[in-house]
Design a protein that fits this description.
This protein is mainly alpha-helical. It has helices at residues 2-27, 32-42, 82-97, 108-125, 131-148, 153-166; strands spanning 47-51, 65-70, 73-81. It has one domain (29-175). The structure holds zinc ion.
Length: 196
Amino acid sequence: MRSLAVVLLALLTVLTVLLHRSDVAAAKPGDLLLTAIASELARRPVTIHCEGFSGALTGARGESGRTEFIGGKPVSVSYLQEGICQTLHAYTRALKADPSCLLPCEQPLELAWSLNTLAHESYHLAGVRNEAQTQCYALQAIDFVARRLGASPDQARALAAFSFDQLPRRMPPEYSSPECHDGGRYDLRPGSAVWP
Ligand SMILES: [Zn+2]
């Protein structure tokens, strides 16, 4: 009888710990602003979580964001490195403090990379798996993401042009495609002003 009581007590402890842990997991809401932007691009409700070390734009394996696919379909949650989230939020704050710079007054490359990371994972969440196709869509969405963070149309266009110019050469070859141009197979809106 006594051993049964011990077993029951142990079970109760395990249950309490499990319940508490699922409570903590459910309570973490994700990044509200970035979640809203990603859901617009993915055209469905998705969640963006930030992970990793403060200030880090890339994780241990060199990735800035990750989205899992299960059975060929994306899950509804993407994870961005903490530094990506921080850079995006810092840009929103910087625009409020001083909206005068056309390209961000500080670290435009870090911002372009971060805008691109959010857009890139959003298109994975939309169901696009091919990296070159996903990345081509992401470049076309840079101006949209910048606008949603508070950039003016001119600032957003400048950031898009800067990203088209600077980002592709910093990525592995499988992230580029000859179809990524105005009128190409990966052009989301032929004739649109986002193309350089
Ligand atoms: Zn990807």
